[in-house]
Write a structure and sequence with these properties.
alpha+beta
Length: 262
């Protein structure tokens, strides 16, 4: 209950079983799937998972996020605590965390003045785990923004040069009755054709190269379709914006002036 896990099968152990150190255990959904495929793990001996254990599995609970965020396995065994030199407790509460930490420290000291207590917040542990991937993602985002800006500047320049080379063709089309919107659609289509080829090649390359990022992705697959779709939409929209301005200028030229230059 403290961790907010859901009971998927069987039950959890009772306070009486905890007090009696009963040989019972609750396992995680991931562990049940790995060791009991197609079977009901409730009632099975825990020895099938932990060699030498005499406990019996009485329930299955949902997987929990552990301190090892990069570990895709969700394996956990929950048993009534026994005599041990060290233990870790999880406390769930509302209100000020600082006041709670002081209260917990004083409570433990009142029970046993010699006990060594170290209290940390779960959020601090998660922040430490996410510090490296957050820094890497921020750097990657900045590099991507610079790369996109350079690509758009280059695309703008190439489009402006290409449309400048077609001034006579554009003038003839307008003189023969083509409207500015017709010319603009033609130029935008021609300018975006290599962009579409590049997006297709880039998507294939990104799908193949994304496997190296598996270790730093949490809750997201390397080939997430929504992420790929969003990236393609952003790139296509940015590219369209980069070619619209030079093509619009080309569509507004005076055909008579251009043809007199010939």
């Amino acid at each position: 209950e403290t961790l907010g896990l859901r009971v998927l099968a069987g039950r959890t152990y009772t306070p009486a079983e905890v007090s009696a150190h009963a040989p019972v255990a609750v396992i995680s959904e991931g562990l049940a799937r790995d060791f009991f495929p197609g079977e009901d793990p409730v009632g099975q001996p825990l020895g099938r998972i932990l060699e030498g254990s005499q406990a019996t599995i009485i329930g299955v609970v949902s997987n929990a996020i552990t301190a090892r965020l990069r570990d895709p396995r969700a394996a956990a065994v929950y048993q009534p605590i026994r005599d041990m030199l060290a233990a870790r407790m999880v406390v769930r509460a509302s209100g000020s965390s600082e006041a709670l930490i002081k209260s917990l420290q004083s409570t433990f000291q009142s029970i046993d003045p010699g006990v060594r207590v170290g209290i940390t917040k779960v959020s601090d542990g998660l922040d430490r785990q996410l510090a490296e991937p957050t820094a890497l993602s921020t750097m990657a985002g900045l590099l991507a923004a610079v790369a996109l800006a350079l690509a758009l500047i280059g695309l703008y320049g190439v489009t402006a040069f290409a449309t400048g080379q077609r001034r006579q063709e554009i003038s003839v089309r307008i003189a023969l009755g083509a409207s500015g919107s017709d010319v603009m659609r033609l130029l935008v289509r021609d300018s975006l054709r290599p962009v579409l080829y590049g997006l297709a090649a880039g998507a294939i390359g990104a799908a193949l190269g994304s496997r190296v990022l598996t270790g730093v992705l949490y809750g997201l697959s390397p080939a997430d379709p929504l992420t790929f779709a969003a990236a393609l939409i952003v790139l296509l929209a940015a590219s369209t914006g980069a070619v619209v301005l030079p093509t619009r200028r080309a569509a507004e030229i005076d055909p008579a002036a251009v043809l007199r230059e010939v």
